[in-house]
């Protein structure tokens, strides 16, 4: 009798597991960038923590920060092949290149899309946004951060926003500067420069002594003379070591003893979780009840004491008490 009950329990367990597995909905996550990039890993953690157990997750990485633009379409076509074979209930598209390369093609299939990490206006990629597309807009807190930096450096009169030559950089320019080369914020003249490659980036940094500080929103697509990708941390460390003025970023991992003095960060894990919650809604209610788009622009402060001391910077109490300090 005991043996019979044991066998029965095993059978029930196997059947239950099979039913649970069959009940899971498929979600395909397509990233613009590559594994190992902190933003990507943070977003993945937020997505996995929200959807694990209720969804079968599959990840694709287009790697568009490192490969030449001539190979973008090849990567997109390979992703479409996986999409057709996997047949997901929902597709998540991370960052602008994925939405630009694949948004319309996937939307035409009728499959719901939830995007995240989008800096540009998504209408730029669709014209009219389809009914089966929604997601989370990432609004890099460029001007809010500069206003806060004025509190940290009250004497500041001139600032530079330095970026790589990438679609993300162009989106930041379009959304924040528009057709203006300079803007004035809290008495600070803010201009921007776009470096076409790693050599030009270094040239610009070495000539920033006329500024009071520089901010670097994006620096992940810089390439050397032979077209090789320059690692983000190498960019940060070199920039910090050679800049004659304080360097501030928009990523938590950029802040360190040999990195940026501070960052105002949209945290990838929370961003990914927000998008994944939208996916859960779509899975539970169906594509006819797509949740409305949301905007993520709430930041966290990260600072490094060594870099602050290097430039004799003192944080106001209102900022210090909300800050996370990294070595």
Q: What is the CATH homology-level superfamily of the largest domain?
A: Response regulator
Broad structural category: alpha/beta
Order of helices and strands: HEHEHEHEHEHEHEEHEHEEHEEHHE
Overall pLDDT metric: 92
* Number of DSSP strand runs: 14
Low-confidence stretches: 4-22
Overall number of domains: 2
- Helical proportion, percent range: 40-55%
Distance between the termini: 64 Å
Query: And the CATH topology of the largest domain?
Result: Rossmann fold
Rg measurement, Å: 23 Å
Which architecture of the largest domain per CATH? Answer: 3-Layer(aba) Sandwich
Number of helices: 12
Instruction: Please indicate the percent range of residues in DSSP E strands (runs of 2 or more).
Output: 15-25%
